[in-house]
Amino acid sequence: MVIGTVLLIFGVVTAFWGYRLHALFRFLAGFGVGAMAGFFVLSSGRGKDLGMLIVIPLLLGVILGVICVVLKRVWVFIECFGYGFVLTAFLIVRSSVGPVESVEFVFSILMDRSYALTRIILPAALAGCAAGVVGIFIWRIWIILSTGLWGGVLSCAGLVCLKMNFTIAATAALLIAVFGIVYQFVRTGK
Questions:
Q1: What is the pLDDT of residues 79-110, one digit of tens each?
Q2: pTM to 2 decimals?
Q3: Strand stretches in 29-175, DSSP E
Q4: I need a surface site. Which of 15, 29, 113, 151 has the fewest CB within 10 A?
């Protein structure tokens, strides 16, 4: 019940106020990456001073978090690049695999470096770069659409955790996403 309630609240907040909270999301993502990277680098060394294992990762986390907030367009490029790359790579691999092909066939495609590089990675990277460039020009629209949709997904997960029928939960989540997106466009309009 608690997890479902938290997911539902977070989903609604993300769907309706995601644009305004996007800087916080960027900071938290940068902070998490910086703190983990600092901790892993320091913990792999010989000197394991407890103070350094706490202070340096926190400092790196704050620095990377601030960089992610300040460089909004770079963050949007990276985010859109990731979506474009993953979606294109998935579609290429999926189109290479017939309905009767096995998992071993997929791994053989991915393990052949020349095939994977020329047929999967390069086209996916080009599509990712194109998506990133488009994202830079439509960053406001992208942030509103992505936070609205993610808010709907989180709301659906929360409603399902609260034992709601999936069809009803998905319908309610879709309404939350749509109304959240419309609300954000109206509230952040220029």
A1: 889 889 999 988 887 777 655 456 666 666 66
A2: 0.68
A3: none
A4: 113
Distance CA 169, CA 11 (A): 12
For 146, phi then psi, to 5°, come to: -70, -40
Residue type, 85: F
43 is written with which tokens?
Answer: 């913990």
Which CA distances in Å does 157 have to 15, 72, 167, 175?
14, 28, 12, 14
> Helix, strand, coil % (nearest 5) of the chain?
90, 0, 10
Summarised one tens digit per residue, pLDDT across range 59-80 is: 989 998 898 888 888 888 888 8
